[in-house]
Amino acid sequence: MPLDLASELESLARSKQIPLSTLVSETLSTVLFDKSVNLEYPPRSHRDGKDQAARAIIAAHGGMTVSALIDRLADAGIKRGKTWVTEARLAARG
To answer: For the chain, what is the domain count?
Structure first.
């Protein structure tokens, strides 16, 4: 489903009661200058081909901490890092 960025930003600005121009400016600054922002959504795929299994485990155990999820994935033979698991958990929660 395509994201309507304009209406999302307007809604967020209304909920935070700040001018839309301020929100857009802050958002652009974050995206352009914060190198920790991952623009890939969902997180990129791994060459091992186990992404679907990893996402299923994360969806089934979404209430666990990130480190517990990493351990759960490792028990299933799937190696994923903290950033990937965090992003996948956020994607699973919707």
So the answer is: 2
Which amino acid is it at 70?
A: I
List the domain range (segments joined by +) for residue 68.
51-93
Indicate whether 60 and 32 sit together in one domain: no
Task: Name, of 2-11, 12-21, 71-80, the range with top average pLDDT.
Answer: 71-80
Q: What pLDDT is attached to residue 5?
A: 66
Predicted TM-score (pTM) of the model is 0.54
Per-residue pLDDT band at 1 (split at 50, 70, 90)? very low
The whole-angstrom separation of Cα 72 and Cα 54 is 9
Q: Give CA–CA dist 87/43, Å, rounded.
A: 6
SS3 content of the chain, % helix, strand, coil (to 5): 60, 0, 40
